[in-house]
Amino acid sequence: MDGGKVTPGRTMALLAGASVLRLAMFTLLPGLPDLLAGRVEISTPVTSFKRLQEGLFLYNHNVSPYDGGVYHQAPLLLPLFSLLPSFAAFPLATYMLYIGADLLSARALLRIAGSGEAGESALFASPRREKRASGLVVAALFLFNPFTIASCVGRSTGVFTTCAILHAIARAVSGAPLGAMVALSFAAYLSMYPLLLLPPLLLLCYDRQLSKHATQSLTQFATTHLAVAAGVLAALFWMSFLVAGSWEFLPSTYGVQLTLSDLAPNVGLWWYFFVEMFDSFRSFFLAVFWLHLSCYVGGLTVRLRRQPLAVLTLLLGIFAVFKPYPSISDTSLFLALVPLYRHVVPLMRYTFVVAAVIMYATFLGPAFYHLWIYAGSGNANFFYAITLVWGLGQSLLVCDLTFAVLRDEWEVERPEMVGKEIRQI
Amino acid sequence: MHRIFSFFLFALLSLNFASASSVYHEQLVLQPLPLSALLASFNFRSSTALSAFEAHNFRFFPRSLGQILQHADTRELHLRFTLGRWDAESWGARPWDGAREGGTGVELWAWLEAETDEEADQKWLTLTNALSGLFCASLNFIDGTRTTRPVMSFQPEGDHPNSTVNNMHLLYGVLPHEVVCTENLTPFLKLLPCKSKAGIATLLDGHKLFDASWQSMAIDVRPVCPDGQGCRLEIEQTIDMVLDIERSKRPRDNPIPRPAPGHELKCDTSKPYHADDTCFPADYSTSQDWSLSQLFGKTIERPCPLTDPGVPPVCLNVPDSRTVFVSHGVVEKKNPDGMSRCFDIPPEVDFNLSLPGPEQKEGEEGNGQIEVTSDLVKSKTPLLYAERSFTGHGQERGGVQTMLRNPSPDNEVEFIYMESLPWFMRIYLHTMDARIEGSYGHNSSNSLIEEVYYRPALDRARGTQLEVRMRIPPASTVFLTYDFEKSILRYTEYPPDANRGFDVAAAVITILNSDKSSPRFAAYNLRTTSLLCSLPTPDFSMPYNVIIFTSTAIALAFGGMFNILVRRFVAADEGPESNLKAAGQRLKGRLATLFERLRNKRAGVVAEKQPAPAPQ
């Protein structure tokens, strides 16, 4: 297992390799970034780079970008990208920003993997923890995952959310709960759904707080840190208000995710459902879908109380399937955390099926989309069917991982059951 | 004596009109165009004193329209019904410098007096719904998504007092999908004092008007205040149509369109490949001989008695060299420019006009070439040519390209380009680019664009409004391009013919008057053609299936997760037996006892039978 040992030299080599690969894709294949930026699998209405550019153009010309139907992203991205040199004149700055975000995510992953939280948390130590994956492998699997690379080259702003979420987890496992709250507030500010990660993240922070100034009471700890998160979010909203000039950005960014007013096709299950929905039931099903998305938080947090990082991983998997505007950037975030659980992979039952289904959907998705939109020889059902398969495959992976994690936990009580056939009652 | 009497009568009549504070006149201008086309331009104008109008004395002003205007506080109104495309390359400049035409479909813009924007919207709703009923058009579909408030493109034509100007709101609505037809013409003619019973309006017949290559019906209401006189409210109704002379004459003897026999084709014999079996169509068709009764199917039945006799009812724009035959009693007056003549029609005389084909000069007959220039009044060159089209393919995204050509060799042209686009075309303004080709070399520069007013679309609430002020140097062509994305709609938002596409309204181009001293705001107006945008469509037949499939996928994920989280792990051979297994066991046990019993019974029977023969 020496090959996986994390040394500064190897880390540098990995990060350098990943950035050179991305830079090469940006510069040597000039048509590729725009091609990827136009793909529905990568650019959703809330993460599209082209829409960001439009918002930026309107912002720089004193037109409110939120008084229109195109820009649905967070207001603070506008001054950030205005500070960069113009994309048309000097695209390298933008490329470097996206590559930097990916590298920061990889560094956070290295720290999460290095902490060993996945195998041995404060309340639980897995009997299989010796087999855990090295941080270098985890980071490499993230950096060279085609989904990650495509999101980065397609310049989806989901990359920043990924970075913020991974940083929140990294700060939490390294015993910096305040940093974790700040990072998660940023993620929630950018995409809203990370707010649902707050309960397991609070537990993770609580479990990993440093002994020298540890708070004993969970209630007290949670109250303080929720207040911190709320304070950071309030500050971000206040800054956004100053940037946007009014509160109309709220309905245009978060309201769009809540009401799904933009029905652009994506890999999720929402868009076609609400295209075909009868108008009188639209609000009811919107509420049901959001309720469904948030109902996993409580159940998983309680059932897997001893492994909050596993809860975070599973929730990210569920969000990548069932959130309103998912893209492959969300899947890449989930797949980045899955290798942390390498030690429970032998307990999973459907790895081959899941891998086959995901490959199938990855290759057929773009083909069926082309048949519908460009060739005209297929209809919308073709692409819809593929999004169903994609969603089912991913939810099977999530369920299977849950099973493996739970069985691993159970085998601590029943060490004699290792390798035996079991059932659930 | 007779002359003195008629003068006296005329004076009396005009005095009478003046005292009634209402005047009306009508005029038809006929202008032959190249390629066997004829522009017929009908103009009806009446007015009433503003004070009388406010006291509900309408006289020649149509009462039905007047009451609507009063009810909706409309100070100025412009309504257009247009069909077809003006072929500027062959027909030249548009009639009225384009001021009396609209884009394909129905176009309406009005200045309403209101204190606030909301009040203006309310009045606009009243106005569109009332006009919808009056003109049998779907104007009530001009809702928030089809209404814009242009900032640069329009200026009031009338004279408005300063007190009202500050409270006037301009609203502009357009219905590109509306098919203009006879049901719109009938109410239009009903507004005229003579209806279609007398005067030039007798020529207007739905079959002919809507068979034209291009036609535009316009209604303009505006207050005018001539110096030293009281203000008057003027209504001007205009119908311009370009008739295809050959097509209009066809129904006489051969109503079914079919290819002309070979010997009737007009060929350009100067082509080297001209032969008996090859024919290049001659640029100029000889069928320039026509008469009003042939084209319109009827003659003008006596002039309208209410019209101002000072304005000749019919004018014809052909050079003086051509012979024109008119009905007996009609007075022909040639204009001093030598290019047009007008006709006065005495009362109770039916008017017909016949224009024989141009005389072919000796020697030219041999090669069949006919000189065009001397037989037609040459149309003015328009100040700008504009063509708009879509670029790209597929139903995901596309682009719009407008080609704007300034034909003038030495004058630059400044204009405002306005688009009002539906909300489901999400345009990306940052991709807008103006590229120039022509005498000033090829370069891409945004210096051509002087000012942009942009109001982005809001989903399901309002459309995009884009106004661009540009300046094009002489003899150059500018390509204005931008990208857009097509959004997918809810399935109930598609029309029944969803795959036909969605109509996109014409772009309105207003060329600014370079002469700043002139009161006119626009030197020339033109509209591009409307476009047809195809959106991605869902499968309309399966809402239930989609709801069921998606719900199943969610139920599978939720059920699987719930199962794993809630149930306890046990070894395969531990724990209480599951209900199913227990039931299976029970069933098995019962079956076993049943079999046992059966076997025992059979064994018993055999045992009974066997001892029977024993005594033998």
UniProtKB/TrEMBL annotation, chain A:
Pfam (any one): PIG-U
Keywords linked to the UniProt accession: Endoplasmic reticulum, GPI-anchor biosynthesis, Membrane, Transmembrane, Transmembrane helix
Compartments, record wording: Endoplasmic reticulum membrane
Pathway membership, UniProt: Glycolipid biosynthesis; glycosylphosphatidylinositol-anchor biosynthesis
Chief localization: endoplasmic reticulum
One GO term describing the cellular component: GPI-anchor transamidase complex
Keyword Ribonucleoprotein: no
GO biological process: attachment of GPI anchor to protein; GPI anchor biosynthetic process
Membrane-spanning intervals of the chain: 12-32, 76-101, 136-169, 181-205, 226-250, 270-297, 309-327, 347-369, 381-406
Family matches, as InterPro entries: PIG-U
Membrane protein topology class: Multi-pass membrane protein
Protein family: Belongs to the PIGU family.
Classification via PANTHER family: GPI TRANSAMIDASE COMPONENT PIG-U, PHOSPHATIDYLINOSITOL GLYCAN ANCHOR BIOSYNTHESIS CLASS U PROTEIN
Protein name: GPI transamidase subunit PIG-U
Organism, scientific name: Lasiosphaeria miniovina
Automatic annotation (TrEMBL), chain B:
Signal peptide: 1-20
Pfam families: Gpi16 (PF04113)
A Gene Ontology biological process term: attachment of GPI anchor to protein
A Gene Ontology term for the protein's cellular component: GPI-anchor transamidase complex
Membrane-spanning ranges: 542-566
Record keyword Signal present: yes
Domain of life where this protein originates: Eukaryota
UniProt-listed InterPro entries: PIG-T
Keyword terms, alphabetized: Membrane, Signal, Transmembrane, Transmembrane helix
Protein name listed in UniProt: Gpi16 subunit, GPI transamidase component
Organism: Lasiosphaeria miniovina
Lineage: Eukaryota, Fungi, Dikarya, Ascomycota, Pezizomycotina
